[in-house]
Amino acid sequence: MGYPDTFEGFMVQSQKNWQEFKKQEFKPKKFQDRDIDIEIECCGVCGSDLHTINGGWGEAPMPLCVGHEVIGKAVKVGDQVTTVKIGDRVGVGAQIWSCLECKPCKTDNENYCPNKIDTYGAPYPEEMGGVIAQGGYASHIRAHEYFTFKIPDNIPSHEAAPMMCAGLTTYSPLLRAGIGPGKKVAIVGVGGLGHYAILWASAMGAEVYALSHSPSKESDAKKLGAKGFISTGDKDWAKPWAFTFDFMLNTADATHEFDLPTYMSTLSVNGEMHHVGLPDEPLPQISAQTFAPNGCKMGGSHIGSRPEMFQMLKLASEKGLKPIIETISISEAGCKEAVTGVADNRVRYRYTLVDFDQAFPNR
After folding, report:
1. What's the predicted TM-score (pTM) here?
2. Which residues of 6-16 are buried (b: 16+ CB within 10 A; e: fewer)?
3. Are residues 195 and 311 in contact, defined by beta-carbon separation less than 8 angstroms?
4. Cα–Cα distances in Å, from 277 out to 58, 66, 230, 320?
5. How far is it, in rounded angstroms, from Cα 317 to Cα 111?
6. pLDDT, tens digit, for every residue of 64-116?
7. pLDDT in tens, 223-232
8. What does the alpha-carbon distance between residue 119 and residue 217 come to, in Å, rounded to a whole number?
């Protein structure tokens, strides 16, 4: 049928064959008054895409088109849309709808709405079409205007795309923790999430240290703004850093292998270890006594809010912040290359799928 009745995307058919993508049509949600149709220019490849299609986070509806770091051009806007016009370059992240009526939604915490709809793999209610939300490895995406964000002109699309999830996921907890001048911040993991966290924390004025078991990443970490690099593979690495960090942002995907009390010993009194990396395995078991020596705490968060997205984009635009991105042309083979590269930890530090006009020439 084609747009606007159907969209086209690269879809995984089963979690058993998660590396195999097939280009096929799918039906989008019903178009409503606050919806925006976006012709996709590029889409970042998130660790969430991998965890979803390979079953690491449990079962997912199939066939499925993943991708929630979308940049494209608005080609249709609903009658009640006021924030975007046709032709605007916009982005969509990991959330595509919320009720906008509950307490979280009304306090700029819509990312914690109990009725939220994720950008892919989530069911829409019958009044919205009753379909499964499909993501951004596709020709188009249909999004509610509240979860659609205009992109500053000076941020290239392939760099803006991963900001829609990885960027916001790391910016939001730093902002909410009051990170700025006078704060010492540890970023655990120098990867897709961690490299953004270093960029943000440094740009916010904090003294930033990168913690990683990969010494080869020290040069990149310092280019991104880290003052120091701590190799967590060294014996007794934490001892010189006891009571040092006001805030530790853990972006790693292997926390189940961590000696958490060692990491937490580096926190200052009442410091926080905050998790945004979401591994397949549970956190290691720890005792309540682990929190006592420095009165530290542990927390986590889920993406961020609309106001935080715009603050992050403003920071990136005004300071000219440059993430480290690799691009891959979207195709069945390109999607396979991207998710396999994430699985094998080959990516430095984020993939963006590009060349959508070649893959979808008839849209």
Report:
1. 0.97
2. ebbbbbbeebe
3. no
4. 17, 19, 19, 26
5. 23
6. 999 999 999 999 999 999 999 999 999 999 999 999 999 999 999 999 999 99
7. 999 999 999 9
8. 32
